[in-house]
């Protein structure tokens, strides 16, 4: 395996884990509570945005360190990492879903659909742990 900047990657992993833990610790059990959270809800959205950006930063670092080519966008980075056996197709799909959610948070296409966001947070937050596990396995190999 070619040398990747594991120190930077592990720092970003720690930042992802901290963000996800903060989100989990502050997520209410039901949508009604979530919609009424005000500024705390915005904080959850910002932490999710930060975690997702760290995921894609890690992907870009690995793409660069493995000399997989100059990417044109996040999609090409994911394709490069898939082709280099950094992860499988299912992880690529999870990351694409994360990117879509990040785009909604960043660009606030209209207004964020809190109900959709609440569902995504509850149903997909463990995708970060799956990504980290795959990444740790890759870095250890």
Provide a descriptive summary of the structure in words.
With 141 residues, this protein is mainly alpha-helical. The chain has one domain: Four Helix Bundle (Hemerythrin (Met), subunit A) (Up-down Bundle). It has seven helices and no strands. The protein has helices spanning 6-26, 31-35, 39-65, 74-83, 89-107, 114-124, 127-140. α1 (6-26) packs antiparallel against α7. The chain is elongated. The model has no long low-confidence stretch (mean pLDDT 94).
Poorly predicted regions: none
| Beta-strand residue percentage | under 5%
Let me know the largest β-sheet: none
- CATH H-level name... which superfamily? bsu32300-like
Short description:
The chain is mainly alpha-helical. The protein has 7 helices and no strands.
List the helices and strands and how they pair.
Elements: H1 6-26, H2 31-35, H3 39-65, H4 74-83, H5 89-107, H6 114-124, H7 127-140
Helix pairs in contact: 1-3, 1-7, 3-4, 3-5, 4-5
Key phrases:
141 residues; single chain; mainly alpha; Four Helix Bundle (Hemerythrin (Met), subunit A); 7 helices; elongated; 0% strand
């Amino acid at each position: 395996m070619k040398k990747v900047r594991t120190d930077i990657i592990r720092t970003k992993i720690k930042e992802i884990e901290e963000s996800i833990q903060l989100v989990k610790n502050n997520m209410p059990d039901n949508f009604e509570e979530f919609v009424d959270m005000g500024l705390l809800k915005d904080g959850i959205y910002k932490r999710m945005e930060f975690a997702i950006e760290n995921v894609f930063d890690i992907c870009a670092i690995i793409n660069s360190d493995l000399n997989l080519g100059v990417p044109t966008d996040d999609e090409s980075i994911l394709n490069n990492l898939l082709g280099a056996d950094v992860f499988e197709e299912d992880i690529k799909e999870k990351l694409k879903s994360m990117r879509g959610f990040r785009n909604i948070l960043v660009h606030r296409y209209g207004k964020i659909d809190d109900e959709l966001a609440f569902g995504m947070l509850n149903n997909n937050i463990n995708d970060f742990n799956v990504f980290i596990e795959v990444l740790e396995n890759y870095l250890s190999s």
